[in-house]
Amino acid sequence: MFSGKKKHDHYSIPSGTIHCGGPDTVVLEISQTPYIFTFKLWDWGRVGLDGVPRPVHIDHGAENINVDYNTTWVKEQLINPFRTIQETTNYKEEHTGLHELEFIETRRHWFETEALVQSHDSVNMLNLVEGEEITVESLDNRFKPFTVHYGETFIVPEQIKEYRLVNQGNSKKLLLFKLLSKFYRRKQSGLLSRIFN
């Protein structure tokens, strides 16, 4: 067991990993597939809309815990695997994880005024996790500019190869969290087989 979470930490949580959010935590949870479920072992006494305590799944959960995921392994493999991809005075792109057990790649884009972002031959799903408001702009007028506020998620299709993010708020530093498909990673590594998840 460990604690010590801080703002903008990144935790990969493969199937079989026991986890919880804890107090004073806002989580941007990204599920890789719609058919993988979380089995609740404890639910803090919360009730559903019907006023009845929400169900827990002790038996199913116990069968799915991967006991090889001990504290040491988790700390070494799953917490904040950041690697800087590119950095300038006003912009930084970080690789935030694609563990071999994950289906998707995640990246962070830090910037002050604006950033040019490439789609990397993948649909992009982004969320503004730091800052007040941005405008997303096409470089070739393929779509009208649109506004995104803190906490909102938006999608940029693969056909849009590059787009601009512009700070429209008073925040001095903005952070967007971006997801790419694993197919992009396989292409970059020279593997030819396409993966459909």
Provide structural commentary:
The protein has 197 residues and is mostly beta strands. It is 11% helix and 30% strand. The protein contains three helices and ten strands; from the N terminus they run H-H-E-E-E-E-E-E-E-E-E-E-H.
Structural class: mainly beta
The count of β-strands is 10
Largest sheet: 6 strands, antiparallel
Backbone shape? globular
Assess the beta-strand content as a share of residues: 25-35%
Question: Order of helices and strands, N to C?
Answer: HHEEEEEEEEEEH
Uncertain spans: 184-197
Mean pLDDT: 80
- Give the spatial strand order of the biggest sheet: 1-2-3-10-5-8
Q: What is the helix tally?
A: 3
| Rg, alpha carbons | 19 Å
Distance between the termini: 32 Å
Helix content: 10-25%
Summarize the SSE layout with pairings.
Layout: H1 58-64, H2 71-77, E1 83-87, E2 91-97, E3 104-111, E4 114-118, E5 124-130, E6 133-138, E7 146-149, E8 153-156, E9 162-167, E10 174-181, H3 182-188
Antiparallel strand pairs: 1-2, 2-3, 3-10, 4-9, 5-8, 5-10, 6-7, 6-9
Can you tag this structure with a few keywords?
197 residues; 30% strand; 6-stranded antiparallel sheet; mainly beta; single chain; 4-stranded antiparallel sheet
Summarize the structure.
The protein has 197 residues and is mainly beta. The chain has helices spanning 58-64, 71-77, 182-188; strands at residues 83-87, 91-97, 104-111, 114-118, 124-130, 133-138, 146-149, 153-156, 162-167, 174-181.
